[in-house]
């Protein structure tokens, strides 16, 4: 289980968010055949930045998301830094993170893809455009999200909130040890989620959402928040390992 980006685009390496695309694990059989191993395999996590918005899109895909615009505000721990080691980040925002925007736009398409002939075929959409900023927070990636649905399929705000509240993925069905009980939390308060207040929700493994409202150019806009070093990195890798154990891909000798 790797957080490294090296194999995210290898066609027979599953890039899995347990609540979103656990079915991609079936490609491991083809990977093992290619590698000539019966036990070993590689499974990877997605980039930490997409955790703040892609999970919110997932239960809404049935309405036909056409396109989305995302601006992420990413903590310095995502660069492996602290304020002591990166003093130029104090009282600062840097409007560039190398390679991050490409990952933010493309990786969700692999997650929403499907397994075909031993390879993962990317989804054709939705089209996502992203800007990524490094901000003076220690932990927690926030996203300002704008979403447009296909003509005639736009859900109501009440339906979106209900879908978020009721959504359970495979991790919740299996009651995996690291899985949040409520994967997607929605806050009605106009000033939530906040990084310091909400990044540690459910051990840092839940996604916090808020400020859902109509938009003048897209259909809706909202805010998302995830803990980048827990849900987005180490904790997410542990949850993936738990899923692999529960599904029989990792077994004791």
Q: How would you describe this protein?
A:
There is one protein chain. A 7-stranded mixed β-sheet has the order 2-5-1-6-9-8-7. Strands 3-4 form a two-stranded antiparallel sheet. The protein has 253 residues and is of the alpha+beta class. The chain has 8 helices and 9 strands. The protein has helices spanning 28-35, 54-57, 100-111, 157-166, 170-173, 195-198, 201-204, 230-246, and strands at residues 65-74, 93-94, 114-116, 119-121, 127-135, 141-149, 184-187, 207-214, 220-226.
List keywords for this structure.
alpha+beta; 22% strand; seven-stranded mixed beta sheet; 25% helix; 8 helices; single chain; two-stranded antiparallel sheet; 253 residues
The main sheet comes to: 7 strands, mixed
Strand content: 15-25%
Strand order of the largest sheet: 2-5-1-6-9-8-7
Percent range of helical residues:
10-25%
- The total of beta strands comes to 9
Low-confidence parts lasting 5 or more residues at pLDDT below 50? none
The outline comes out as: globular
Number of helices: 8
Topology:
Layout (H helix, E strand, L loop, with lengths): L27 H8 L18 H4 L7 E10 L18 E2 L5 H12 L2 E3 L2 E3 L5 E9 L5 E9 L7 H10 L3 H4 L10 E4 L7 H4 L2 H4 L2 E8 L5 E7 L3 H17 L7
Parallel strand pairs: 1-5, 7-8
Antiparallel strand pairs: 1-6, 2-5, 3-4, 6-9, 8-9
Compose a concise summary of this entry:
With 253 residues, this protein is of the alpha+beta class. Helix content is 25%, strand content 22%.
């Amino acid at each position: 289980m790797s957080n490294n980006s090296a194999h995210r685009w290898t066609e027979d390496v599953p890039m899995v968010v347990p609540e979103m695309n656990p079915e991609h694990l079936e490609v491991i059989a083809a990977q093992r055949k290619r590698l000539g191993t019966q036990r070993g395999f590689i499974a990877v996590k997605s980039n930490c930045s997409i955790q703040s918005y892609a999970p919110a899109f997932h239960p809404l895909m049935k309405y036909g998301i056409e396109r989305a615009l995302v601006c992420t505000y990413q903590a310095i721990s995502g660069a492996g830094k602290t304020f002591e080691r990166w003093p130029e980040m104090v009282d600062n925002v840097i409007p560039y993170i190398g390679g991050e925007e490409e990952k933010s736009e493309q990786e969700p398409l692999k997650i929403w893809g499907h397994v075909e002939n031993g390879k993962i075929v990317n989804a054709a959409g939705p089209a996502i455009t992203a800007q990524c900023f490094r901000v003076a927070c220690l932990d927690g990636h926030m996203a300002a999200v704008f979403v447009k649905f296909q003509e005639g399929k736009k859900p109501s705000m009440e339906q979106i909130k209900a879908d978020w509240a009721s959504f359970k993925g495979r991790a919740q069905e299996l009651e995996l040890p690291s899985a949040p009980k409520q994967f997607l939390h929605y806050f009605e308060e106009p000033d939530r989620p906040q990084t310091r207040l909400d990044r540690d929700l459910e051990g840092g493994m839940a996604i916090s959402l808020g400020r859902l409202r109509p938009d003048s150019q897209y259909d809706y806009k909202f805010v998302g928040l995830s803990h980048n070093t827990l849900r987005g990195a180490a904790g997410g890798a542990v949850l993936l390992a738990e899923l692999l154990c529960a599904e029989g891909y990792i077994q004791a000798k």
